[in-house]
Specification:
The structure holds 2 protein chains of 2 kinds. Chain A has 4 helices and 22 strands. Chain A is an alpha+beta fold. In chain A, the strands form 4 sheets. Chain A has a 7-stranded antiparallel beta sheet, covered by helices on one side. Chain A has a 7-stranded mixed barrel with strand order 14-21-18-19-16-15-22. In chain A, helix 1 (48-57) runs parallel beside helix 4 (314-344). In chain B, a hairpin with a 6-residue loop joins strand 6 (141-146) and strand 7. Chain B has helices at 4-7, 33-50, 77-89, 93-97, 118-125, 129-138, 231-240; strands at residues 11-15, 19-23, 56-61, 65-70, 103-110, 141-146, 153-156, 171-174, 178-182, 185-188, 193-195, 198-202, 223-228. The longest helix of chain B is centred in the first third of the chain and has 18 residues, at 33-50. Chain B folds into 2 domains: 4-97, 2-Layer Sandwich (Gyrase A, domain 2), CATH 3.30.1360.40; 103-240, Beta Barrel (Cyclophilin). By secondary structure, chain B is an alpha+beta fold. The chains are: A alpha+beta, B alpha+beta. Chains A and B meet through strand 17, strand 20 and helix 4 of A and strand 1, strand 2, strand 3 and strand 4 of B.
Chain lengths: 345, 242
């Protein structure tokens, strides 16, 4: 039975090559924990739930490195067989011959096939996971690209990405051939799989910020009741908001620690919601903090789309956080087990 | 010695749903060596008490505040609060001073193209440029925080005679290693970025190197002094690090 096949670890590594990089694609994992005191951003995947789901669908733990795609994904050649999954926004996905492939399902690519991740019909980011994880170099304990500070770069054409090929070239069991060299699992992750709200505006839940009491009641009323538009100048550090200006409290404030979700109001009055690649300290007053659970949804809002804030209590935020984690853990565990069985069948 | 929390009432608040913020009282002057010392005491003790606590992810220190980042799924806010209480009771100045990080001397080539604002700072201070350099190198500084960019130290202890306001229009690019003054603080750009500080010199030392562990020379609480070097020595040190 298994005696002829080499085990996973014994198989030699393969190098996928980037044919087209997409709009802005980077290798990310769960980020760099423990270096914030040196000013190093946490970084990592911006929509952590979608990334963890993509990983689970190929049998990986949540901390395996994935490729984060933005608006339009990359085109990647796999010289050896690979099992991949794409989760997040509703990105179009194609095999080498143009046959559409589904997101949120394990896809078995035979040696020599190409995967093309096209544009997103909804949502803004997607995650490409490969069975075994992308094997880029770990720097400060993480594979997360931090391009601004010289840790990795966004993908460009010709880049090579190391992965571990699956043991066989073609799958057994409940897989459906969609082309001569691509198979799709006859099983999907279900309801949670699609990220990216179709709502416009998207509602984000937030708690009061550290300087909330310094803002005028009119400023707070505007912030909590008016819709904002996402500026195209947004990046992995923060989402810039347009459409309303918030009166800033008088006087300079002393720089304080910040965190992903902090809603800073600089002197322009146009708020910036920090994302996971944000700096560690900031000197702008913060009117609110988006709750941790909603950061994933925030990362899926496209430039030009609208969002609004609704205030919740700290206690409710904690309850939501725990419920989300508990559900996610159970759900990812089941998916991972199922995916592993499918791949190793 | 009484705990620092008895001497200074530390204000506590939640930051979002995943961090606890400790703030020094307004009565303690911001960006002062005293504030830095009190915060460092708390920081050292917290790190000792919380190092093995599951769910405590990181700790960031700023001028007059400190944030503890946590995972509410692994440690409840109440449990974290209690842990911090216990730690603060233990935070006497004596207990932390022993573990204060070391000192470093940073070589700086002042003026010229490396320090395009030295003359402006001198004019503002009504001093000769050499005197600005003398006062800058005579000082002993504390790393009050690291932020803005990885490895960018904010230093307290600047001689008030050479304090200078930020440039009215920030430069589009300040080179990595640039030593600047902004108000009563001095600092070093760890990366080439836009910036509005008055640049008086440049160090050849790379301030951030992700291949090294830890990735910076400096950490909060470290004592810093500056040493003036000429261009020849600058080039020599620079070569040694590339």
């Amino acid at each position: 039975m298994g005696s002829v096949e080499r085990t996973h670890e014994e198989r030699s590594l393969a190098e996928a090559s980037v044919a087209q990089p997409g709009l802005y694609s980077t290798v990310q994992d769960e980020g760099r924990v423990g270096f914030m005191r040196y000013g190093v951003p946490l970084g990592g995947v911006l929509d952590a739930t979608s990334a963890a789901l993509a990983n689970a669908l190929v049998g990986n733990a949540a901390d395996a490195a994935v490729i984060e795609c933005t608006a339009v994904g990359p085109e990647i050649d796999f010289p050896e067989s690979a099992v991949v999954a794409v989760c997040g926004g509703a990105f179009a996905l194609f095999a080498a011959d143009g046959t559409p492939l589904p997101t949120a399902r394990p896809i078995w690519l035979c040696a020599g096939s190409r995967l093309r991740i096209g544009a997103a019909a909804s949502g803004y980011r997607a995650y490409l996971a490969v069975h075994g994880g992308w094997q880029t170099e770990k720097i400060l304990g993480s594979r997360s690209t931090l391009a601004r500070y010289g840790i990795g770069k966004p993908l460009s054409a010709g880049d090579r990405l190391v992965y571990r090929p699956v043991a066989r070239n073609r799958p057994d069991g409940p897989w459906r051939a969609v082309t001569t060299d691509a198979y799709v699992a006859k099983w999907s992750a279900g309801a949670w799989a699609q990220a990216g709200d179709r709502d416009d505006p998207v509602w984000l839940r937030a708690v009061a910020g550290e300087q909330a009491s310094a803002f005028s009641s009119a400023a707070k009323k505007t912030f909590w009741s008016a819709p904002f538009r996402v500026d195209a100048k947004s990046d992995r550090m923060g989402v810039r908001l347009l459409g309303q200006t918030i009166a800033v409290p008088a006087g300079e404030m002393t720089s304080e620690p910040v965190l992903p979700g902090s809603v800073q109001v600089p002197s322009s009055g146009e708020p910036i919601v920090l994302l996971r690649e944000c700096q560690t300290v900031g000197g702008y007053p913060k009117i609110a903090t988006v709750i941790n659970v909603d950061l994933d949804r925030l990362a899926q809002i496209r430039p030009g789309a609208q969002l609004r804030f609704s205030q919740i209590s700290f206690g409710d935020a904690i309850t939501l956080y725990r419920r989300h984690r508990r559900m996610l853990r159970a759900w990812l565990g089941q998916i991972r087990a199922h995916a592993t069985a499918l791949i190793e069948a | 010695m009484p705990p620092v929390t008895k001497t200074w009432s530390i204000e506590r608040s939640w930051m979002g749903d995943t961090a606890l913020l400790l703030r020094l009282p307004e009565s303690l002057p911001s960006a002062s060596s005293k504030a830095t010392a009190v915060l460092l005491t708390i920081d050292q003790i917290l790190r000792k008490h919380l190092a093995q606590v599951p769910g405590v992810r990181d700790c960031v220190i700023a001028y007059r505040s400190l944030a503890i980042y946590f995972d509410p799924d692994q440690i409840s806010p109440d449990a974290l609060w209690a842990r911090v209480d216990a730690a603060l009771d233990d935070a006497t100045a004596a207990s932390a001073n022993a573990e204060r990080p070391g000192a470093i001397t940073i070589p700086v080539c002042y003026g010229g193209s490396f320090g395009p604002d030295l003359e402006e700072v001198a004019r503002h201070a009504k001093l000769a440029p050499d005197e600005v350099v003398r006062l800058h190198t005579a000082g002993s500084y504390d790393v009050a925080m690291i932020g803005f960019a990885p490895g960018f130290p904010y230093l307290t202890g600047l001689d008030p005679r050479i304090a200078a306001p930020r440039k009215p229009t920030p430069r589009a690019r300040v080179e990595a290693g640039s030593v600047g003054i902004a108000g009563g603080q001095t600092g070093i750009y760890s990366f080439a970025t836009p910036g509005g500080w008055q640049i008086i010199g440049r160090t050849p030392l790379p301030l951030f190197n992700p291949a090294r562990w830890p990735p910076t020379w400096l950490e909060p609480g470290m004592r810093v002094t500056f040493r003036a070097i000429d261009e020849e020595e600058y080039d020599g040190i620079r070569r040694a690090y590339t």
